Amino acid sequence: MVRVAVVGCAHGMLDDIYATVNFVNEMDPENPVELLLCCGDFECMRNMRDLETLACPPKYRALHAFHRYYKQEKTAPVLTIFVGGNHEASGYLKELHYGGWVAPNMFYLGAAGVVNVAGLRIAGLSGIYKQQHYTAGHFESQPFDNNTMRSVYHVRELEVFQLSHIQQVDKTSLGVFLSHDWPRGIEQYGNIPQLLHRKPFFEQEIRTNTLGSPAGEFLMYQLRPQYWFAAHLHVKFAAIVVHPDQANDAAKATGGESSQTDKNEEQDATRSPPQPATTKFLALDKCLPRREFMQILDLPGSGHSNETVTEEQKYDADSAAVSATEQNIVHPDEATKTEQTTSQTKKRSSPPKIMFDLEWLAILRATHHLASSNKFAPRVPQEEMKIEDKDIEWHLATVKKMDPY
Q1: Fewer CB within 10 A of the end CB, N or C, for the chain?
Q2: 366, 386 in Cβ contact below 8 A?
């Protein structure tokens, strides 16, 4: 188990977020938060020049606190991983297209990315969906104009294609998916009347099935992560997506086969890790007083994976109260402590580290020829791309050469 704090839109309010994490840790010092996940609008502006690349009306621009963490006047008290949203220091994040450290203990997943932390496999997709730029390359460059300042954070088809190919070789299930946008149609799995009570202007988009990202919808059904966290719409909302049983679907499609074949299939199914039956979705609000912007969860590991190398580092759909081991920090006095197993209470000897995901590196290598800085980029292949064991082994050998220890 790893104790995780999930945050909606940060909007640069890092001091307030970390103060809230410290408050939670003071409430339960034996089980501190080990990882903070942010679902976009992180706003990591280093200076006034970065501030000029923030896509919002000038009167709302503010440098906030990140520059102090960048200059190491302050240090993030907990390992922080985030994806980009539609209000970002786009110039800085464009320099880290494949992800990287923006400041000590703060890691950006990139336009898309997959990492492993404390046995938890985490994937993320930055930005928001806009159809007019979906098939374009990453053509934006500084200095941005009013158009490119916004198109730079629009989701691209290539990153979605890359993410859709994880879990081919490394069967470790995807524990967490981070996005800024909601997956399209996710509201159908939660409490729609409650959502419309809070956000009545969503009604037209819900009726026309245009609320959320089609790219996110595709990835949710393709990858079936155990948890999906998002932000963007500034409202807390929970849902449970029950995925079809893949084994039953396959059995129906091959109903005429022998019982011996069925037994073999059952044996094969027991050897490989099963896909999660459900995806538990949670969207959170922005960081403001009396807003539901953070959730504390104890997440199980995705499963042991040998294919990682160190890099220096039940939702209730009506109430969004998750399970017995999850606490809503907005009302800490109402949170009840639960019995902790030995594995939960056992303290880690060292803070969790970010690990490379070798399958993701193999996917990036296999699709590098599709990357484009032109507006009219080559389309991604329509046929499925195969990632094999030899691709993983190549990366493992290469990384070992770089760091034999």
Answers
A1: C
A2: no
Written as six digits, the tokens of 241 are: 């997506």
- The residue with tokens 């050897």 is 271
Strand partners, 263: none
Tokens of 21: 């994490």
Q: Which CATH number fits domain 2-255+263-402: 3.60.21.10, 3.40.50.300, 1.10.1060.10, 3.30.2310.20?
A: 3.60.21.10
Instruction: Report the distance separating Cα 9 and Cα 172, nearest Å.
Output: 29
User: Would you call 328 helix, strand, or coil by DSSP?
Assistant: strand
Q: What pLDDT score was predicted for residue 270?
A: 46
> What pLDDT is recorded for position 168?
87
Mean pLDDT by 10 residues, the chain (405 residues): 97 98 96 98 97 93 97 98 97 97 98 96 98 97 95 98 93 94 98 98 98 98 97 98 72 48 49 67 97 96 52 39 43 36 52 94 96 93 90 88 68
The Cα angle at residue 387 between residues 111 and 375, in degrees rounded to 5: 35
Q: How far apart are the first and last CA of the chain?
A: 27
Crossing angle (nearest 10°) for helices 259-271 and 246-253: 160
Q: Which residues fall within 8 angstroms of residue 393, CB to CB, at 6 or more apart? A: none
Domain ranges of the chain: 2-255+263-402
Q: How far apart are CA 272 and CA 266, in angstroms?
A: 10
Give the SS3 label for residue 222: helix
pLDDT the model gives residue 249: 53
Q: How many CB atoms lie within 10 A of CB 377?
A: 18
pLDDT recorded at residue 81? 99
Amino acid at 386: K
What the block records as the tokens of 401 is 């050469």
The rounded distance, in Å, linking the Cα atoms of 236 and 231 is 8
- pLDDT of res. 261: 46
DSSP structural state of residue 333 = G
What sign for the dihedral angle of Cα 74, 7, 129, 105?
positive
How far apart (Å, rounded) are the C-alpha atoms in residues 322 and 292?
Answer: 14
Cα atoms in the 13 Å half-sphere on the side-chain side of 17: 32
Residues belonging to the chain: 405
Q: Which amino acid is at 168?
A: Q
| pTM attached to this predicted model | 0.85
Contact present, 352 and 79 (Cβ < 8 Å) = yes
